Amino acid sequence: MHIELVIAKLITVGLGVLITYQAYKGYRTYGSEPMLYVAIGFLFISVGAVIEGVLFDVVGLSIFLAGTIQTGVVALGMIVILYSLYGPMSQTMDEEEHP
Predict the structure, then answer these.
(1) CA distance 14 to 72
(2) What separation in angstroms does the CA of 85 have from each of 14, 49, 62?
(3) Which of 27, 21, 65 lies closest to 46, judged by CA?
């Protein structure tokens, strides 16, 4: 594997973990359940950023299967983030703020 790609992947994971931490901190500070889902979603997306290479190089899966799993993990993260935006808890908070 090229060192430049490894560095880029590590930066991507680092940024994702930082976003995850800040969202979780927002959840803990304000008790905002949607922020918890944002944190979980970004955690999945961060893992998805590197899982393809790990599954291909370390585990030995085919590039097709590794890419499919990676896409599924990232999509799951996006679904969780969408839930944080449109889920029942977000709608309840909007109704409380705008009667």
Answers:
(1) 21
(2) 24, 22, 35
(3) 21
Instruction: Report the number of distinct structural domains present in the chain.
Output: 1
Is residue 9 a contact partner of residue 50, using CB atoms and an 8 Å limit? yes
Token pair 């449109």: residue? 86
Q: Tell me whether residue 17 is exposed, middle or buried, using C-beta atoms within 10 angstroms of its C-beta: 0 to 12, 13 to 18, 19 or more.
A: middle
d(CA 47, CA 54): 10
CA 99/CA 94 separation, integer angstroms: 8
| pTM score, whole prediction | 0.82
Q: What tokens does 49 get?
A: 């950023």
pLDDT one-digit tens code per residue, 40-91: 999 999 999 899 988 988 899 999 999 999 999 999 999 999 999 998 876 5
Q: What domain range is 30 assigned to?
A: 3-97
Residues in the chain, total = 99
